[in-house]
């Protein structure tokens, strides 16, 4: 029997590509270019499955509606799937899956890195040393903000948030509060001695650090607007490893300029890979190029998870990570 034809929209780690070649008649993206909309449409017409990712053009209703579509499953390489219009997928009868769990710890590690780096002025200090501008230790040099024992507020308290809470609470003695419309089980809340709050605003008002762990798009677009940023303490820091569009970037820039909040650690941006000149010029922000899941172990695991979903589908089973 011939193997299903599968197109990977970007280059994957070698181990995951090798597995794809073993399982399927696979088309790799050898030069790792961003596929055009026309290429994505052609992929839909020629492949049984495509495996896209966050930085692709959105697989939208136009792409799902291409004439002679052959593709039956879109298996995302990534946990966030705002790069796929799931309503359009449902309307077209195409299955959509994602890759949860395997990237939880590494993304949480990056959230903690941002939290520590921005509050302890690590980026600034490193630039000072590299620029050969450091003229020695003194009691008042580069004083920053202590992390241990501070209050950490979560917007969204799913898997990645809980992994951050694990590190922050048990490693740094941080007090945990959160807002989530779908709260976890009581035992999870008890484990972190966490305070469940009724609104986003309640979290913002009390926290020394606010970390975002909600999906992007829809009602969460610009969730962190000028008004909500204004509810944070002047001494507080905002951490975003979720999606760039959750933060109103111009409002954030203004809040940072006006001292409404103390700083921000950002792994995601509204219009990736563009980062505004304003953000680039600020010392009280830490800017990372969407590194949340970027370890070899995790990216291989994401590839294998995406392939497992495709395999389950063509084996006639329900893919484990179906989101549409
Ligand atoms: C995801 O999986 O949603 C990440 O943002 C990509 O690493």
Describe this protein with a few key phrases:
324 residues, alpha/beta, Rossmann fold, seven-stranded parallel beta sheet, 13 helices, 13% strand
Number of helices: 13
First-to-last CA distance: 28 Å
In what order do the strands lie side by side in the largest sheet? Answer: 8-7-6-9-10-11-12
Derived from helix and strand composition plus strand pairing, the structural class reads: alpha/beta
CATH names the topology of the largest domain as Rossmann fold
Mean pLDDT rating = 98
Measured as a percent range, the helix fraction is 25-40%
Q: What's the overall geometry?
A: globular
What hetero molecules are bound to the protein chains? (2R)-2,3-dihydroxypropanoic acid
Q: How many domains would you count in the coordinates?
A: 2
Count all strands and give the number: 12
Q: H/E order of the elements?
A: EHEHEHEHEHHEHEHEHEHEHEHEH
Return Rg in Å: 21 Å
* CATH classification, class level of the largest domain: Alpha Beta
**CATH architecture annotation of the largest domain:** 3-Layer(aba) Sandwich
Main beta-sheet annotation = 7 strands, parallel
Q: Can you identify the CATH superfamily of the largest domain? A: NAD(P)-binding Rossmann-like Domain
